User: Fold NAD(P)-dependent dehydrogenase, short-chain alcohol dehydrogenase family from Myxococcus fulvus.
Amino acid sequence: MKDSEGEPPDTQGRRWALILGVSSGTGAAIAHAVAKKPGLDVFGVHRGRYADNAAQVERQVREAGQRARLWQADASTPEAAEAGVLALREVAGPRSVKLFVHSIAGASVGRFLSEGEDRLHTRRIRRTFDTMAHSFVYWTQALVAADMLAPGARLLGLQNSLDQTHLSNTGLISASKAALEMYVRYLALELGGKGHRVNLLKFGTVLTPALKHVYSPEALARLEEAHARMNPAGRMCTVEEVADFVSVLVGDEAGWFNGATIDYSGGMTLRLLDLVLNP
Assistant:
């Protein structure tokens, strides 16, 4: 585990965003957006797979006039959560985290009963749940134990539309996201009386470096064409749109959201039956 070089600690009333999965995709876009509005410093955690992207995120946050500290680690374990929060406290001081975003991914795709290589073995199941669900609790516990949550802090998990429609090899992703949703609701109960808010933001497919790594250009073109037919808006959502809405959720106007699964999917699943029956 290691962090990037940054400015010396400044604990005089600054507000920070803690973002897991900050180096690419949605996490990177959120870091850039909240640095601009409402003007949060960013402590970002990443695995180091997209080092150039991480450096770019750091530059963007600082160009927006905010402090940035990036910390490289596997964020899915309770040990990493405790160490990461301690590293954050050294930079930011207590009661400084206004926004916590869980944007890490690391799920296995496959089938539970397959006899082939795509069988979802125990190790894959445990790893997926640690990454996609349990780590949200680990980091929340560490933040509370270290007295890091600022007044009116917002804790945000990210959800997809697989709770409404299913792909045959994504059962483990759907199950872990269902666990994440329950964690959000119960943490909202436990933290609501302290003035904090815990929510889940659901949005549709967005183009990320990870997606571009998995799919060929031809497959990506088909994916975009399918979403253009599926989405009422006639196009895919962008990571920038998601990130801008996260900035809204940090504001006082969104303070009554708590324990909610906020649908920001643009109606992505509304047309599915029509596409099947009237292709």
Summary: The chain has one domain: 8-277. The mean pLDDT is 92.
